[in-house]
Structure formats: C-alpha cells, structure tokens
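Try it yourself: sequence plus flavin mononucleotide, in.
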Amino acid sequence: MTICEVPAAPAVHPALAGRFSPVGFDPEFEIGAAHVDSLLDAARMAPSAGNGQPWMFLVARRGDEIHRRLVPHLARSSSMWAPDASLLVVNCTQVLVEGTADWAYSEFAGYDLGQAVAHMTVQGLHLGLDAHQFRAFDRDALAAEFQIPPHWEATTMTAFGRASHAPGDVSSAGTSRERASRDEITWARD
Ligand SMILES: Cc1cc2nc3c(=O)[nH]c(=O)nc-3n(C[C@H](O)[C@H](O)[C@H](O)COP(=O)(O)O)c2cc1C
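Structure, out:
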C-alpha cells in the first residue's frame, strides 16, 4: 500500500488528484442555493441501470431546520466535524420495490447511488467545495426522524464545504489515505 497524496499518473485531473475527505470544515463558509441546485443536477445526470435512478437526497444547510433535526443523529465520530460543514446531504437508495418486504428494486441500486454521489462530489470539486462522504450516523433514527419510507435506505451522507485543514494535516488522522497500487488493483492487463 502506498500513501497517495499525489497520484503517480500525471493525467489525473488536478481536482481529483487534490481531493480528500476533510475532518474539519470552515464553520463560516456558506453554500448558496444555486450551488446546491447544481450538486443535485450533477446527481440527476448520473447514469443508472435501466435509468432506474434509485436515489433520493435530504439536503440540510447549516443553520436551517433540516440541519437542526439531522445533526443529533450523527455518530460521535462524525459529530466532531460534520456539523461545521456548509451542507449535509443524506444519500438514500431505493432498496426494495414499494410495498414488498424482500423484492430488490434493482441489482445495481447501491452501484447507482454511489455513482450519483460521485457525480455530486466531482461537481462540488468544480465549485471549489471539499466533500467527505461518511456512514457514521444512526440510520434507523434518521429514517424515523424524516419518515423515510421502508423501501428506502439512508445509505450515507456527504458533508460539503470548505476544508479547514490540508490533506496531510495530522488532524485528519482517522481516515486512511493509503491506496493500493495500480498493479494491486489490476487482475489482467496487457
Ligand atoms: C461509503 C463510504 C463510507 C465512509 N464512511 C466514513 C465514516 O463513517 N467516517 C469517516 O470519517 N469517513 C468515512 N468515509 C471516508 C473514507 O474513510 C475515505 O474516503 C478514505 O479513507 C480515503 O480517504 P480520502 O477520501 O481522503 O482519499 C467513507 C467513505 C465512503 C465512500
């Protein structure tokens, strides 16, 4: 495993090469409604199996009522930094066909949500926003708070904002930045 602060391949887009998951956000920095719209539009444009679009989002801007209701459901770890982010987005997946107990909506629902979130994250980079995706929250309590239907799952959250520290900062300890090498992630390649 290698620390991958700067990808070896020079052709990697600078925004992607510089991307990292901050564990500190500027608590004064605000994201305007137009930028929130563009993040959602980026997700909308993502491809999905059969164009199923098995995603929904809860959008909480720091200081608004949704944010106030959401923050208590963060885990202790994420509550150290996520509330300072300008925006918290809950990324939800449609896991079941509505009204069924065990009929999967799509074999690719998780894949599709991840791709929509990736689009959103890359759009954020374009807007100068840092992002940290995370799972550290109480999924059941959040579902109850926002009455998420039972065939949906609150899968992850993304904190968007302006990082208050550099990628290599010791305060970012906790999220590993190690990466497998190109060879290690390749089973076959001529
Ligand atoms: C699905 C998913 C869940 C994650 N959950 C957490 C989490 O609960 N807490 C956390 O601090 N980071 C979480 N992360 C961030 C990863 O730890 C981070 O992306 C990884 O360590 C690589 O670091 P980097 O994003 O800075 O390159 C999560 C990332 C993903 C994609």
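One thing you can check immediately is this: The chain has a mean pLDDT of 94.
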